[in-house]
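Shipment paperwork, digital attachment
Item: protein structure file
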Amino acid sequence: MTTALTGSEPTTPTSAPRLFRRGTAVLRVGSLSLRVDARTLIVTAVLTLTALALAWWGLNSGTSQMTTADTVDALLGRADEGTARVILDWRLPRVVFTLLGGAALALAGAVFQSSTRNPLGSPDIIGFSTGAYTGALIVALAGFTGLLATPLGAIAGGLGTGAAVYLLARRGGLNGGGLSGMRIIVVGIGVSILLGSVNTYLITTMDLEAAMSVATWGAGSVNEISWSHVWPLAVALGVLGPLMLAHGREMTLMEMGDDSAHGLGIRLERVRLIMFAAGIILVSAVTAAAGPIAFVALVAPQLALRLTRSGTVSLIPAAAMGAALLTGADLLARWEAIPADLPVGVVTLCLGGAYLVWLLTTMGRRTS
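Attachment content:
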C-alpha cells in the first residue's frame, strides 16, 4: 500500500507536510515508516465506500422484490431457500464480480498507461482484450468446454497478443532495444483491428445459436455470472494485485523516462515484462468470464489521477475507481427505465466512448 500512496509531488526535507495537495505525512511505528499522501488516502476511501454502496444497491435491486431485511437475513444465513437463492446465488456473484472485475481492469489500465506514459495506453485500445476474446473463441470452436478451458484460452490469447505487440513495438524486434510508448499504442491498435476481423470470421463459422450467444458475451455481459466465474478472477487478483503493488514504486519512477529510471537502478525490461504479463492476465480473466468490457481500463486510472492530483498513475485509487465504475455501469444497465437488460459492456462503451472523444479533443488542443 505504501507504493500506491506515494504519488504526490515531492517536498523538500525541511518543508512541513501539507496534507491535501502537495504534501505527504510520515507515519512512524517503531522502526517502520510510511509516507501517506492524505488527499490520495481520502479519495481512495471515498471511492471504496462509493463502490461498496453501489454493490449494496445492486444486491437490493432486481425483478424479484427483496427488502433490505431480506438481504441481511440471506447474508447471515437466516433467509428461506428462495430468498437465499436469489441473493446468494444470483445477485451476490454478479456484484462481487463487478467489484473485482472493475478493480482488475483498472489495475491493468494503470500499468499500461504508466508504462507507455500515455493516457491512451489501455488494454482495450492496445488490443489485449481483443486478443483474449480471440483465445476464448478458438477454445470454444475447438470444443473444449471444461471449467478452466475458457479462462486458459483467454489468458493464452491475451498473452500471445501482448507478446506480439511487445516484440513488434521494439526497435529491431526480438534482439533490438528501446520501447516507445506511442509505438506500443500504434502497433497495438493495428493488432487489435486485425484480431477484430479474425473474431468476426470465427463467429461467422459458428451455428446460429452459438453465434448469438457468443455475440452477447462479446458485448461484455455479466448477466450469467456465477461463483464459478468469480473464483478464478479472485485468485488472479489476489496473486497479481500484491505483485503489481510491490513494483508500483518502480512503475512510478519509470514515468520519468527510461534514462532516469535506469540511472536510479530500475531493471526496465524485467519490470515491464512483469507488469505487462500481470495486467494482461487480469484483463484476460475478466474477458474469459464476461467478454471484453471496454473503456473501464482506459477511464478509471485517469479519473483517479485527476481526483488525487498526484501527477502519477497510482494503483490503489485506480482500482477503487474501476470497482465503482463497473458496479455503477451494471446498475445502469439493469435500470428499469431501459426496456432491455443491457450487457454492461454496452454501457461502458457509450460512456467510455464519450470520454475518449473528450480526451482526444483535449490532447489535440494541447499539441496545436
